[in-house]
Design goal:
- The chain has about 525 residues and is an alpha/beta fold.
- It has a domain of about 210 residues: Rossmann fold (3-Layer(aba) Sandwich).
- It is about 50% helix and about 10% strand.
- The protein has a five-stranded parallel beta sheet, sandwiched between helices. The protein has a two-stranded antiparallel sheet with strand order 6-7. The chain has a two-stranded antiparallel sheet with strand order 8-9.
- It starts with 16 loop residues before the first helix and ends in a 9-residue tail after the last helix.
């Protein structure tokens, strides 16, 4: 579980006992020899990740009878192919015998597994399986997944496996294919598959809808868990867990009305009561975050903007690279995408002044990061990576910037992720740097071809329909590029080109950074009742 300060997040889990019992029942059924699937649906800020933290922690607390827990999360808006799958399987593969891994690499799953550290050297003397050049690339994908399923089944004979794949609404097409394959094909394997997504992020044409329909239409229907808002009693317990004392009835009523039962909004309202004592708590979540952000130091705000622009967990070394790229005055890619240099002293929305690169020795990343963690904006994951505490906070932090500075932070993050071309291409695109986006997208497509990824992962087009001229006209209005929809035949997860990718990234609203309209993007608080 991420390390977060108790004064912002309650260290005691509140409620959801019925839902936790459903997870335990599914795991027990899987341990008995029947593969099970659980789909967890919860809107943004409702506490889905925290719920899974608690469920998996309880399973691990069983001691010798505990199942083997494998966990991967999609970060979006774009991920490298098989990203969440490799994150989940990586720790297990690192513990297995090399001879067993050589047999696995010799099968069709070789292109997928070679992305993991250390396996490329292990596979140096293992011949690759023969593939016909006439074979349909999309038919090779099930052949790559079958060895993984059989291998997981053999491992599960030693110890039941709980495989959790989170946030599939922003997952890459290959990860969605893996989840669909496991849910449909697994039968007698002692595997419990847990899939989570945000239903409020699914547009009418979102590709995940087709995956979910196929999973639910299978011979082994999944168990569904719908996470709803907290009750007033649970909100009171959550506030007590944060502040250490029972709140008054008036505070509980105020927070319950303003949060609509969202745990994230409850936490931000409680934090705002301490940080913004004279401020009204009737604004949106974005207003609360912007008010709290304005009280932080310039170093802290700079670090948070870099983390928010990255859109995914980031190592401290990579964060330092992004900070160096932002501060470097010699990088043409960090200039204003409209061609004008960033003016010195351009004010941000929160009143802070944007410094020109090189106008000071540089921001203190360590001090800013420590302050961000102390005040609950960011946290450190178990693997040491850093990220904003919640995606809605990250969107609110980016919305606090004007389009020009926002694009510069995106460009700095893109340079830091230069070794991950699919991520760099998306960041260059949202930062309106078309040449860099084109180069990175082409490189990402070439890399995906050799990974047995669906066509959707290989067909990213960095420019919208109408070419550069049409994009330049839209860019003047701070609108994003529209991804072109192509034809494809890789059902269900990578069919029909890139349809739905624009909506998945939030481009339907027309915001330059891929965020949705401000009230929805930052989790607008409901209007006061009565």
């Amino acid at each position: 579980m991420p390390i977060m300060p108790g004064k912002v997040v309650s260290r005691r889990f509140i409620g959801r006992e019925t839902e936790l019992a459903q997870i335990e029942a599914a795991v027990e059924a899987a341990a008995g020899g029947t593969a099970t699937t659980v789909i967890v649906a919860g809107d943004a800020g409702i506490g889905t990740s925290r719920f899974l933290d608690e469920a998996l922690d309880r399973l691990l607390a069983r001691g010798p009878e505990a199942p083997l827990v494998l966990r991967g999360r999609s970060h979006g808006p774009v991920d490298p192919p098989w990203s969440a799958v490799l994150e989940a399987l990586g720790p297990l593969i690192a513990q297995r015998d090399p001879a067993e891994l050589r047999q696995l690499i010799a099968r069709d799953a070789r292109p997928i597994l070679l992305q993991l550290p250390g396996l490329e050297d292990l596979a140096a003397d293992v011949p690759a399986p023969a593939n016909s050049e006439l074979a349909d690339p999309e038919r090779r994908q099930p052949r790559a997944l079958e060895p993984l399923l059989r291998w997981l089944g053999r491992v599960a004979q030693e110890r039941p496996i709980v495989l959790a794949l989170e946030d599939l609404h922003v997952g890459d097409a290959a990860t969605r294919s893996f989840a669909t394959f496991m849910a449909r094909i697994a039968r007698a394997e002692r595997i419990c598959l847990i899939l989570s997504y945000q239903p409020d992020r699914l547009t009418r044409e979102h590709p995940l809808r087709e995956n979910l329909a196929i999973v639910e239409a299978g011979l082994r229907p999944p168990a569904r868990i719908e996470l709803g808002p907290l009750s007033r009693r649970e909100i009171a317990a959550l506030i007590e867990g944060i502040e250490g004392e029972r709140p008054s009835a008036s505070i509980v009523v105020l927070v319950a009305e303003r949060s609509a039962g969202s745990p994230l909004v409850v936490e931000e309202l409680v934090a705002a009561r301490h940080d913004l004592r004279s401020a009204s708590l009737t604004g949106t979540l974005a207003d609360l975050v912007a008010g709290r952000l304005a009280r932080r130091s310039d170093d802290c705000r700079h670090v948070l903007r870099l983390l928010a622009a990255s859109e995914r967990p980031i190592r401290k070394e990579r964060l330092a690279d992004a900070a160096a790229a932002f501060e470097s005055p010699a990088e043409p890619a960090l200039a204003d995408p409209r061609g004008a240099p960033a003016a010195a002293g351009t004010p941000a929305r929160n009143g802070a002044r944007l410094r020109r690169p090189g106008s000071r020795a540089g921001h203190d990343i360590d001090a800013g990061l420590a302050e961000a963690i102390e005040h609950g904006f960011a946290h450190t994951a178990e693997d040491g990576s850093l990220e904003i505490r919640h995606e809605l906070l990250a969107r609110a932090i980016l919305l606090d910037l004007l389009p020009g500075p926002r694009a510069r932070y995106r460009a700095a993050a893109a340079q830091a992720f230069g070794d991950v071309p699919v991520v760099a291409a998306a960041l260059w695109m949202t930062g309106h740097h078309l040449p860099e986006a084109r180069r990175a997208a082409l490189e990402a497509g070439r890399a995906a071809i050799g990974l047995e990824a669906p066509a959707r992962a290989r067909g990213r087009r960095p420019f919208p329909g109408g070419g550069r001229a049409a994009f330049e006209r839209r860019r003047g209005h701070d609108r994003p590029a529209r991804r072109a929809g192509g034809a494809g035949g890789d059902a269900p997860d990578a069919c029909r080109g890139f349809r739905g990718e624009r909506d998945r990234c939030g481009h339907r609203s027309g915001r330059a950074d891929g965020a949705r309209d401000p009230p929805r993007a930052a989790g607008a608080l409901p209007a006061r009742r009565g």
